[in-house]
Amino acid sequence: MDYRNLIAGGWVATGAGTPNVNPSDISDILGHAAQAGATQLDGAIAAAHDAAPGWAVSTPQQRFDVLDFIGSELLARRDELGHLLAREEGKTLPEGIGEVARAGQIFKFFAGEALRQAGDILPSVRPGVGVEVTRSPVGVVGLITPWNFPIAIPAWKVAPALAHGNAVVLKPAELVPGCAHALAEIISRSGLPAGVFNLMLGRGSQLGPQLIADPRVNAISFTGSEPTGRGIAAECGARLKKVQLEMGGKNPMVVLDDADLDVAVEVCLNGAFFSTGQRCTASSRLIVTEGIHDRFVAALTKRMRALSVGHALEAGMQVGPVVDAHQLDQNQDYLRIARAEGGEVIGGERLARATEGFFMAPALVTDTTNDMRINREEVFGPVASVIRVADYDEALAVANDTEFGLSAGICTQSLKHATHFKANAQAGMVMVNLPTAGVDYHVPFGGTKGSSYGPREQGRHAAEFYTTVKTAYTGA
């Protein structure tokens, strides 16, 4: 299949296409993706710029109908599109189906938000003057999305952008053109006016700078690495362009002596290794107090080694492949670094399966300290490290000793410690006896420090980024 760009309502191919490779079986080529250049991107931005004024004044019913159509089709086709997602990105089939369902739910939620547009009517401090406070669309938004959630993250950016009356240029990651194309194809049949939504496939290093620099693009929402995000923030700041960034995480999961051991093990197993650990919210630092440390490590090791790793479409698999060869090599490099710095690595081997793919066993690194690189830098694979601490106070200090602040968790039966941790963990999202990964679509998503910058994503808080506030006065 050829994946093409969507510009002004029309599908546009390019002369060269990049193969879309199945990470579970590198002999399986899903299709070839168009590689947009400067001219095509300019056309997409122009189309969005031309279409933005009309969509900005569309009715709540028009917006609802479009978003509800998209959400309904995603939910109806969750099995089919989940299969595509698993084949393209490497999530297990149940995870892929679940992600598509979540994307559908996101569009359904924002369909409702389109009907719930609200404002304020206030009396002025001056006699005979009325005040109205409303929200207006930003205009044209550039959306740059990663490969690890190839349909859910585009959904949670595209849906609020459209619900709040903006035009969109979506630039998905190069590794996952199939899911982006499938979503765009549904959007193209939703009744949305031509040009309001545009899809650009191609290299981020080529298209990203142009998208950010173009004065017709009013805002940029980016999910990806922290170094890239910092560069985007600087470029947008220089242009006084609205920006929203979701970047990395080095998320702590604290396990206290009073934790239910079975609960703690399952929470950490899920948070660290499911979705092949390729989640910015993954539990990558397991901070465990002395009284439970040895029992916890033994129990988690047993459960980790029992995980089924293999082809994402094979029944019963719990962990799929790493997304590509580069990511697999990077994961192995971090394990070598951890060993060199004194850590003991359990698991982590490259695995051979019936098909040639990017498989590795989940890895647990013990005997680590928080200053080791394995605990400072995001690995983005099925790798977790264990840090032994004396008590809750040390655990909290270690949890907060990081440049990131996306998600944090604690396993405890103490209401006192759970309450204190929720208030004092330096993270945008805090979990108690739940994995750090796994959030709802109707509430805000985002972090602190180097993990996030700008307004929150998802839920009603998405309006903060996708709209601007207007205050109007009326005299007698």
> What distance separates the N and C termini?
63 Å
Count of helical stretches: 14
CATH superfamily of the largest domain: Aldehyde Dehydrogenase, Chain A, domain 1
Count of domain modules: 2
Largest sheet: 7 strands, mixed
What fold name stands as the CATH topology of the largest domain? Aldehyde Dehydrogenase, Chain A, domain 1
Shape: globular
Strand order of the largest sheet: 15-16-17-14-13-19-20
Give the low-pLDDT segments: none
Work out the strand percent: 15-25%
Rg computed from alpha carbons, rounded to a whole number of angstroms: 23 Å
Query: Briefly, what CATH class of the largest domain?
Result: Alpha Beta
Number of strands: 23
Structural class of the helix and strand makeup? alpha/beta
Helix content: 25-40%
Write structural notes for this entry.
The protein has 476 residues and is α/β, with parallel strands linked by helices. The chain folds into two domains: 2-247 and 451-475, Aldehyde Dehydrogenase, Chain A, domain 1 (3-Layer(aba) Sandwich), CATH 3.40.605.10; 251-432, 3-Layer(aba) Sandwich (Aldehyde Dehydrogenase, Chain A, domain 2). The protein contains 14 helices and 23 strands. It has a seven-stranded mixed sheet, with helices on both faces.
